[in-house]
Amino acid sequence: MLVLRSGLTRALAARTLAPQVCSSFATGPRQYDGTFYEFRTYCLKPSKMNEFLENFKKNVHLRTAHSELVGYWSVEFGGRMNKVFHIWKYDNFAHRTEVRKALAKDKEWQEQFLIPNLAFIDKQESEITYLVPWCKLEKPPKEGVYELSTFQMKPGGPALWGDPFKRAVHTHVNRGYSKLVGVFHTEYGALNRVHVLWWHESADSRAAGRHQSHEDPRVVAAVRESVNFLESQQNMLLIPASFSPLK
């Protein structure tokens, strides 16, 4: 009995000391899954945009052999032109480290795509994000366009603004004005930042839904509550690449 009790004590102690990955977006059950999403943005030379995308299309299989591509888009409206945005999924930080090491040793990837195309890139940006605990990554029913809405919230974290933000998102979804793909909060990058990825059948259907939502008292009330914690926001209309898993 003493041996069993000692073993149990050691097991409980080890479990207590084991590191756990937690999402800071604690508006519901905390996220203990280490899965995260890297947001990458490349600003390309204007004369090389089409060539870059065509070259990536030819070699995308070399890159996705190492980790999962969630989506790949070109930016149509909202911000700098000749820009591509892509999302990559990783199991945890150790997984990403392994992938980056493998890519550095992958001669086919290096020689066929990376080295010849690096000169086409003017600027690169990276953010590490988690899906919020109350949201799952959803696949749209058919091809369309995407909108990435980015909200810079006030310092204080989700304990301050998480619930009002969640209600504002759910009100739009429940009223059917937009199709939600995913809600992400930034772990590395600007803190207190939340990205909401929406799907629309077209840019015109997005405009029509937005006009209708502005006249919906339930949406207006939810947004007014959330905006009290908002510092700034911006959005981009995204066109999926032909090789993007999210179309």
TrEMBL record:
**Gene3D superfamilies for the chain:** 3.30.70.100
In what residue span(s) does the NIPSNAP domain sit?
37-136, 146-245
InterPro entries associated with the record: Dimeric_a/b-barrel, NIPSNAP, NipSnap_domain
Q: Which domain of life is it from?
A: Eukaryota
Q: What family, per the record?
A: Belongs to the NipSnap family.
Write down what this protein is called. Protein NipSnap homolog 3A
Lineage start = Eukaryota, Metazoa, Chordata, Craniata, Vertebrata
